[in-house]
Amino acid sequence: MSRTAPEPLKPVYGIWGEDRAKIDRAVQRLVTRVADEGGLPPDRFDAVTTSAADVVAACSAMSLAGTRLVLVRGVDAWRADDVAPLVACLADPVPGTCLALVGDAAPAQRLVTAVGQAGQVLRYGPDPKAKATERTRWFVEHLSGEVRRLGGNMPAPVAREVVARVGEDAALLAQEAAKLAAYAGPEPVSREVVHRLVPVNPEEKAYRLGDAIVVRDAPAAYAMLADLAAGDEPAKPIVVMMTLARHFRNLAAAQAAGPAVTADEVSAMTGLKGFPARKVAEQVRALPPGAAEQGVVRMAALELDLRVSAFAGLGASRDDGERLVLELGVRDLLAIMKG
């Protein structure tokens, strides 16, 4: 039986999203197909160090040996003003060249539009505009799907528990899927297996604590503190402090740009991509003026207290004292966020 011939290669593919494993597989399929059709090995570039104009020049270079594949990673590093030469080029693509634009997040919207008009956008990961519950659902389904792909079976409630322990990171979840599928074999992955094999990511809980502080949800913040102190896998106060400090530094940088800061601007200032950048932009709009910078100052004092304060020595053990210091810091941060 003859197989249907594949569609001709498109002039450009946009391949981006948080699911890096699927992105890498999609890129490899494209590289293999170009080679199978007699094309050249890809010309590889990184958008962090290569301008869109240089990519246009590479696309325009004459090819005498089949299709030229130009592969550019990190395209979400380009800002809106950077992509003008490439947008103009895609209005009339260079014959014989296939351009692959790859990133952890979508690039500037004008480039996304140009790619969609000239070729095809392949997004692997949750919708960047998805609500928090929709994002979580995507990661739960992603984890279950990875386990199935590897020949295993993971019920949705168990998958949700893994996501809660690991965090919303597609690459880390794919690693856990491989480990759990291999361990469980033909049996469904159970909660007991998850508790035995999947460590809790302390930074994930600390990030959720930071979110609770920023939205001034004191009950949630104190419940998270209790879990960090006495849960199944407690986290060291210094680890929590460092994670909170990063979060407030990002907030302060974004708030300094003004209340109308966009996710793209947050990304350029902080290096955050996709949903985390959008979340910071949304949180900034809800904060009192100067609150994030005050939070950074309080975090600096918290670090000093954890390292040398007499409070850190209180209690039956140093751990008790450090947790008191952390709780006082969270109390002050909640007050700062209220204004």
Overall description:
The chain folds into three domains: 12-123, Rossmann fold, CATH 3.40.50; 132-197, Helicase, Ruva Protein, domain 3, CATH 1.10.8; 202-338, Zinc Finger, Delta Prime, domain 3 (Up-down Bundle). The mean pLDDT is 89. The protein has 15 helices and five strands. 58% of the residues lie in helices and 8% in strands. Strand 2 (43-46), helix 2 (52-60) and strand 3 form a beta-alpha-beta unit. The chain has a five-stranded parallel beta sheet with strand order 2-3-4-1-5, with helices on both faces. The protein is of the alpha/beta class and 339 residues long. The protein is globular. It has helices at residues 20-36, 52-60, 84-90, 109-118, 132-149, 156-166, 170-184, 191-197, 202-214, 218-230, 237-256, 263-270, 275-285, 291-308, 318-338; strands at 12-16, 43-46, 68-73, 97-103, 120-123. The termini are far apart.
The rounded Rg comes to: 24 Å
Q: According to CATH, what is the class of the largest domain?
A: Mainly Alpha
Sheet with the most strands: spatial strand order? 2-3-4-1-5
Mean pLDDT: 89
Number of helices: 15
Number of domains: 3
Per the CATH scheme, the topology name of the largest domain is Zinc Finger, Delta Prime, domain 3
Number of strands: 5
Q: Tell me the strand percentage band.
A: 5-15%
What characteristic shape results from the CA principal axes?
globular
Tell me which CATH architecture of the largest domain applies here. Answer: Up-down Bundle
